[in-house]
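Morning. Coffee machine broken again, so started the prediction first thing and wrote up yesterday's gels while waiting. Chain of 68 residues, entered below exactly as on the submission form.
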Amino acid sequence: MGTFQMLPLATGKTFAINFYDAGLGKPDYIIYKVIGSEVMMAMDNQKVDCWKLFNESNYKGQHATKTF
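Came back before lunch.
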């Protein structure tokens, strides 16, 4: 997750990040799209405006989506 903090995030931007997952073969570029923002409540009840990143993947015939 520390990688995301370094990105110049803005709605509509797309990033291709070269990641390596140990045991899954060679490094590969993973696409992340900024799909907007959402206000979330922190543990101390403070409101925090957060960027939302979306990712789609296929692994061994399984389709998955993730929102960060």
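The mean pLDDT is 91. Going to sketch it on the whiteboard this afternoon.
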